[in-house]
Amino acid sequence: MNHAETLASLLLQGDSAKVWENIQKQPQLSRLEVYQNLITPAMQHIGHLWETNQITVADEHLATATCDFVLSKLAYRQEKDNQTKKPCFSAWMGNSIILA
Questions:
Q1: Torsion 77-80-85-87 (CA) sign
Q2: How far apart, in whole angstroms, are the C-alpha atoms of residue 27 and residue 6?
Q3: How far is the CA of 48 from the CAs of 51, 61, 67, 78, in angstroms?
Q4: pLDDT for 4-58, tens place per residue?
Q5: What is the distance between the alpha carbons of residues 42 and 40, in angstroms, rounded to a whole number?
Q6: What is the distance between the alpha carbons of residues 95 and 55, in angstroms, rounded to a whole number?
Q7: End-to-end Cα distance, the chain
Q8: At 97, phi and psi to the nearest 5?
Q9: Contact between 24 and 16 (Cβ < 8 Å)
Q10: Structure letter (DSSP) for residue 99
Q11: What pTM was computed for the model?
Q12: Which residues contact 78 (CB under 8 A, 6 or more apart)?
């Protein structure tokens, strides 16, 4: 089973924790790369399974809902990471340095 099929299987099980764990095993990937290289191929595989009547509409809806949850978590994590990285600005005022 290739990576897309593995991720698709986890999505079809509705196991968001294992999907998240699977994504976290690839920390070098940007959010865009996660979308393009992990999520999209898995969802395309699920679409193929549905088209060929190997899964039901309910199965596909569960996988989509699970994927949506994981994508929300991924976006939240990145937003939270960005909030902890605050820029530091400095300026001279008279004989003092002001840091903000």
A1: positive
A2: 18
A3: 5, 14, 16, 30
A4: 899 999 999 999 999 999 999 998 998 899 999 999 999 999 999 999 999 999 9
A5: 5
A6: 72
A7: 52
A8: -105, 130
A9: no
A10: E
A11: 0.75
A12: 31
